[in-house]
Amino acid sequence: MSDEEHQFESKADAGASKTYPQQAGTIRKNGYIVIKNRPCKVVEVSTSKTGKHGHAKCHFVAIDIFNGKKLEDIVPSSHNCDVPHVNRTDYQLIDISEDGFISLDTAVEVVYKLKKFIGSLFFNQIKDGFAEGKDLVVSVMSAMGEEQINGLKDIGKN
User: Which residue stretches belong to region Disordered (predicted)?
Assistant: First the structure.
């Protein structure tokens, strides 16, 4: 054995995959799928019959869960598609800073800073509710390394 000391720097995450494979023929409406490297919610699925080349095809119409764009893909039903791991978590709103960042209270009492909103109308709803002194809970959706606020609930007044 040598007396050398080795140090390794890791700039990667814990190694958890952002997606998992699922057979195209088993993906249904209101499920999730990755189309053009974007996490999407399936709004329509149609399956063609087996043709000359031996595979039934699935036609997916889906909406990007973060930007709302409509995407389409056609995949043989026996092939695998990537499906994103989608998480939705509720946090209590603690504060809104002047530069647009919000502070959220997590279950482990760590302040979480986030600056992702669905349009200025949604931000105005959060800001107005906070200014009125309401206790607000925001829902944060995360998938494939992105996260965004996608819901707001009033749980009562202070």
Answer: 1-20
